[in-house]
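Let's practice the habit of predicting before peeking. Look at the sequence and jot down your guess about where helices and strands might fall. Then scroll down.
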Amino acid sequence: MCPLRINGSPNGNVKTLGSAGTIFEAEDSDILLRIMERPRAINVSFEERPSNELLRNHFECLSPHGRRSGFNSPRSYTSFEAHAMVGEAWENMKRSIVYYRRQPVGTVAAMDHSVEELNYDQVFVRDFVPSALAFLMNGEEEVVKNFLLKTLHLQSWEKMIDQFKLGEGVMPASFKVIHNPVRNREILIADFGESAIGRVAPVDSGFWWIILLRAYTRHTGDSSLAEMPECQRGMRLILTLCLSEAFDTFPTLLCADGCCMIDRRMGVYGYPIEIQALFFMALRCALLLLKQDQEGKEFIERIVKRLHALSFHMRNYFWLDLKQLNDIYRYKTEEYSHTAVNKFNVMPDSLPDWVFDFMPTRGGYFIGNVSPARMDFRWFCLGNCVAILSSLATPEQASAIMDLIESRWDELVGEMPLKICYPALESHEWRIVTGCDPKNTRWSYHNGGSWPVLLWLLTAACIKTGRPQIARRAIELAENRLSKDHWPEYYDGKTGRYIGKQARKFQTWSISGYLVAKMMLEDPSHLGMISLEEDKQMKPLMKRSTSWTC
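Done guessing? Here is the structure:
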């Protein structure tokens, strides 16, 4: 354990902490605004009625100052009857809250004290998103607002990895509250990738931050947070990183492996679907949040142009259905000039055998990656669900994705929702792609593991596409085991039968993912926080370019 080395800035703020990470320290009184309590009723399916005393124990989330949560209001008690698991989930959520100077600022990744904590005692940006949505749906807006402000100010500090300075707009992957013995006060330490596996900066954190800011604004009806100069500047810094000109010939975002939820080497370098879908959604959210001032208008113009190009590229070149699969199967190679049919020079012999059996007659999906001479045909759940929610997928494509999930239920859902990707890498391919990663063995963790947190994304996609019965079926599967198994991080096996070999118990986003799915299914109006309607102006004629027409 290395000793703390603290360097102070002229204004008294702490900026660096040796090699351990980046520190943020600032007074809250000038930044945090009082929020208006708006308790919201939730109607949850009833199987076993808890007693009034149990309800109070489960849902009385008290702040350090004794303010009662929206769940404790009379309106809440008279209008909702809880599945027993819901009460347990909220109790665990309450325990997961992290406080910074008596203010709630997030939730820890996991509360499993039976194993070494590693970085599971930190607040992760991506992990907090389902927690934030659950709190918003429950009328607990303070923690979400505090989280947005704290991560925003963490963004502003200088970020160094070895001798290299990261871009100013990079958001942290996570942060942790520690006690500074020198100044006898709490401070925040942020990780921008310098402590992560592989030392990769989190590309998705900035996108999730913008998406969550829009969810908060939409839910509360309060635009004052988003209109703060600090929030406007934070968004512009994130967008500057994404919209900068380089050597790109595609509108998609070039990324390193391990820069998102799949944060280990899994062959998702290049143009992964998860990042492209989040990029698209963040751009659309930014359009709604940026002010129409001089700086804002400049970014709005750039965003609109990028969205048009990105939507066309993704809807055409990343989309795979039976017809397109057959077209690729018949490609010629080594073509030249703008008349080439096989634009990316993809070798038909590189088509994996499994994809021919996996593709149903009705259905389709956005494949994992498209780059020169490479198409990753794996299914990735998060990217496809976000594509539906952001309306990157056209209504026809969204419906086809749901058709695929129904047709391949055993493969993608199995005994525990939901496969993070399909299929798993095995044998020689696993050795080459993952570098013999012992955590990502076949059908485990990121390599075909089943992640309960994805339940909320599936549920939101189901509601948007008018298929709530799919979500109900998946939630029922989760309710059979999640609580009994103590809310694991992930499950292993081809059907998700076994608790993951290194899965943490009481994983917060497994808990919050279930709560969000449950509340959203019971009150579909919550979908508006995380869903964007199709922009008709951004819908060009779905005519594939000549270079992709056989």
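How did you do? The domain at 97-529 is CATH 1.50.10.10 (Glycosyltransferase).
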